[in-house]
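User: Mind token order:
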Amino acid sequence: MKIDPTIKPVPGPAPLDEQARALRSSTSAGAGTASAEVQLSPLTARLQAIQSSLSEGEVVDAARVAEIKQAIAEGRFTVNAEAVADRLIETVRQLIDPRRG
């Protein structure tokens, strides 16, 4: 993979102007006396559970990757273009109509 040197870095956020600074300082000054209540949806709890279960396991099967690398190096790796095309079409269908997923 070649890295394209023509891509320029994106600049960070612009500095705050005087109005934004005044607003920020006035809201932070009263923050100590105010209380806020936040309620998370059940979906948030599910997402947190999924995230924690994903972080526990390996994302990549290193043994399978090594096996495929070896097969490529030896010229044994073949691609079933029809299967790839079928799965690509199915993925696009799911992206277009999420109810099918």
Observations:
- The chain is about 55% helix and 0% strand.
- Residues 2 and 8 are 16 Å apart (CA to CA).
- Residues 81-96 form the longest helix (16 residues).
- The chain has a mean pLDDT of 79.
